[in-house]
Amino acid sequence: MKKENLTKQYKAIYKKSPTNIIRAPGRINLIGEHTDYNDGFVLPIAIDKYTNMLVSKNDDRKIRLYDLKYKENDEFHLDNIKPSQQNKWSNYQRGIAKVLLDAGYKIGGLDILIFSEVPEGAGLSSSASIEIATLLSFKKIYDLNIKPLEMIKLARKAENDFVGVECGIMDQFASLLSKEGHALFIDCRSLKYQYVPLSIQGYSFLVCNSMVKRELSESSYNTRRKECKYALRAFHKILPRIGTLRDISIDDFMRYGALLSKKSRKRIEHIVYENERVQKAVELLRKGNVEIFGKLMYQSHKSLKELYEVSTEELDLLVEIGRNEPGVLGARLTGAGFGGCVIYLVKDSSIEHLKEKILDVYSKKRELVPQFYEVVPSRGAYVEFIAGSGL
Ligand code: GLA
Which residues of 194-215 are buried (b: 16+ CB within 10 A; e: fewer)? Predict the structure, then answer.
């Protein structure tokens, strides 16, 4: 939706003009799945789908929300923030306000109109984009002196403590700090990051939504986290210098892996080799070696399917369709898994053919109509002024 239309809607709802539009993108992860909460490496890009928030301040310490897509509204007072049972969607804003207040930041009321372009339940980080957009709204309107890494940590804390998903740090990181035309290589232990130029001329990332919503994802995701903690304890007993799964080298794994239970061994094997793949991927992309990078994508998917066990039949089918298509260099599930999306690295001239093939094979087998998004590596969250708002 155009900025002018959004502004018009805002005026109709709040009887005043917004002062800013805050935009925070969703993301896909190119490689490095379930490694972030194990202190490992990830390589996401922000996509050109944003959560838009039109905002202006109010003086009554209330956060008023209107979601344009769902035509729903809600409000809460900053002096009494509790999770909402009826309007669960507003728990993101509640969580962000709460973590900011708890951290001692001075914030006041906001009147917010939300319009998100990021599909929900698709593993494209619609939640993180809402969290980051909300945080940036408070920062902008209340002139908070808050650094990007602090924002990322607080947004994650809101999701962990308030929404109840024990996510890692990747999605909020990608939504805030991504750069156009680049992937974001993050070391989730040191939180140091580098921009990796994406020289993939002639190729694109095509996202295909399996349309299987990640309904069970929250509990299954938290289960994986517990399994990792358990596996870590077991490995630590064998090799006390291991503080996180990131510390386990391939050599350590080959030497001691057999001493673990089957499940712990599988989870650790995924993490150890996935971290290795991310580092290789960064080197390959820097050199523009897309062919081998594509192979790593397939390996990552296989590992997520067989070792980490977060794939679904639908995601596997979509990856297999890619494997049989000339012009596709790699495919894998992206995000947490348990439904959601597959990404393909595909020759530009083969995109249409791939889509037709997927529509044909997938729709016949699954009676689901997948959705496609041709994504462009985009910039992270930013603030826009609104002309005529008096600023
Ligand atoms: C979700 C989480 C991330 C990350 C991925 C899996 O997107 O929010 O922190 O763990 O799953 O890589």
Answer: eebebebeebbbbbbbbbbbbe
